[in-house]
Amino acid sequence: MVTHPPVSDPLDAAVRLTPTISARSTEIEEQGRLPQDLVDLIRPTGAFRQWVPTELDGPAIPAWESLQVIEQYGYADGAVGWCVAIATTSSLMAAFLPPEWGKVIYADPDSITGGFAMPKGRARPLPEGGLEVTGRWQWGSGTSHCTWIGGGCLVVDTDGKPASRPTDGLRMPFVFFDSDDVEIIPTWDVSGLSGTGSNDYAVDGAHVPEGRWVEIGTTEATYPNPLTQFSFYGLLALAVAATTVGIARRSIDELVSLAHDKRPQGSSRSLRERAVVQHDVATAEARLQAAWALMESTVDRSWRRAEAGGAASGDERRQLRMAATHATQTAAGVAETMYKTGGGAAVYRSSPLQRCLRDSLVATQHAMVAPRTMEVAGRHRLGLETDLGLF
After folding, report:
1. What is the DSSP string of 49-85?
2. What pLDDT score was predicted for residue 373?
3. Domain 10-95 is classified in which CATH homologous superfamily?
4. CA end-to-end distance (rounded Å), the chain
C-alpha cells in the first residue's frame, strides 16, 4: 500500500511518487486523463495548489522551488507534470480573488483548479449582480479532476456586443464555475500529452455570483506576495517549460538505460560503446542543463526583485519568456535526439522514448512558449514598439 507523502516537502514527495506514477504511464495515456487514485495520491502533497497564499492555508511555494516540483512530475510522466503545472498556475488566482471567494475555492486543501484564460466565453451582467456566462473553451487540461473550473470571458451588453460593465468597467474576467455547471466535451484525441484530458468544455447560461472572478493583469492582489509581482503569463510559460524539461531529462535516462544492453543490428558493440551515442548523450545533457540554468538565473533575479515589492519591468517579463521558450524548445530537441539515438527500439509504444518525443513536441505548441514568442522578444530588444501585454 502506498502512503501519502507529507506536505512539508513537495519536491521530496514528487521524487518518492515518481516510480509509482511512471509505472502507470501507459494507463494514463490510454485513459486520456489522470486516474482518480493518482490524483488523490498527489493531492495531499500540495503540488496542485503550490501558489495558494498562506492566508488561505496554502503552501505559497516560491517560484523556483515550485518549478522544480513541476519538472520532477514531468520526469515521472509528461501528462502528470502538465496537469500539475496548469493547476499550479491557476492557483495563483487565489491571491487575487475577494476574500470570501478565495476561501470558498482555495481554502479547502483538496482544491484543484484549472481552465483556459483566453476570453472565449460571453458574460452578461445581471441586474442583481453577478454574471450569466455562456461559452466553450479548448485546452481544458485536468478539468476532469478539478474542483473548480475557470474560463476567460468578454463582458457583453444586452445585444451581445462587447461592452464593459457600467458599474465598474469589468471587461475580461476569468470566472470560476461550479463543476456541475460545466460540460466536458471529449475532443482530446492527440499525438502527445494524451493523458492530460485537455478536452473542450462548455457552459450554457451559468450563473457566476458577484466577485467570483479575477481580471488578469488588472485586479489588485488581495494577498500581495512575491508571486503576485510576477507576470501571470510568464509564470504560465515557465511552468510549461519546467514540464518539458522534466520530459527531456527522462528521455536521456531512458536512452542511457537502453544503451547499456542494446546492440544495433549487425554490430558486436553495445549502443553505449558507440562514439556517436556518447557524443549525443553528453551534448543533450549539456544543452538541457544550460537551458535549465538560464531559467533558474532568470527566475532568481525576478524573485529577488519581487521580494523587494517591485513590479516586473517589461524587459524582465521579456527575459522570463525567452528563458521559458528557449528551455521548452531545447528540451523538445533533446527528446528528439534521444529518440533517434535509440534506433528501432524507440518506435514501439512500449518504449518511453517515443512517448517523451510525442509529449515534448505537443508542449512546444503552447502559445506561451511557441517559437513566435522569440519574435516579440527580439522586436522589443531592437527598440521597436512592442505590445508586451501577454508577457
Report:
1. GTT--GGGT-----HHHHHHHHHHHHHH-HHHHHHHH
2. 95
3. Acyl-CoA dehydrogenase/oxidase, N-terminal domain (1.10.540.10)
4. 44
Residue 104: DSSP 8-state: H
Angle at 369 between CA 365 and CA 371, to 5 degrees: 75
Task: Tell me the C-alpha distance between 140 and 202, whole Å.
Answer: 10
95 neighbors 221 (Cβ within 8 angstroms): yes
**Which CATH number describes the domain made up of 115-214?**
2.40.110.10
pLDDT at 262 over 90: no
Cell match 503550490: residue? 50
Give the three-state DSSP class for 208.
Answer: strand
Integer CA distances (angstroms), 249 to 255, 278, 283, 357, in order: 10, 16, 13, 11
**3-state SS class at 147:** coil
User: In the numeric block, which cell numbers belong to residue 51?
Assistant: 501558489
- DSSP assignment letter at 162: B
Considering the segment(s) 230-381 as one domain, its CATH architecture is Up-down Bundle (1.20)
Question: In one letter, which amino acid is 216?
Answer: I
Question: Per-residue pLDDT for 310 more than 90?
Answer: no
Q: How many C-beta atoms lie closer than 10 Å to residue 270's C-beta?
A: 15
Structure-block grid coordinates of residue 350? 512500449
SS3 of residue 6 by DSSP: coil
Sheet holding 199-208, edge to edge: 183-185, 199-208, 131-140, 113-125, 148-155, 174-178, 213-214
pTM: 0.95
Residues 6+ apart with CB under 8 A from 39: 112, 145
SS3 of 213-274: EECCCCCCCCCCCHHHHCCHHHHHHHHHHHHHHHHHHHHHHHHHHHHHHCCCCCCCCCHHHC
Cβ-Cβ contacts under 8 Å for 279 (sequence gap 6 or more): none
Cell 504560465, located at residue: 236
Region 287-311: what's the mean pLDDT?
95
Q: Please state the domain extents for the chain.
A: 10-95, 115-214, 230-381
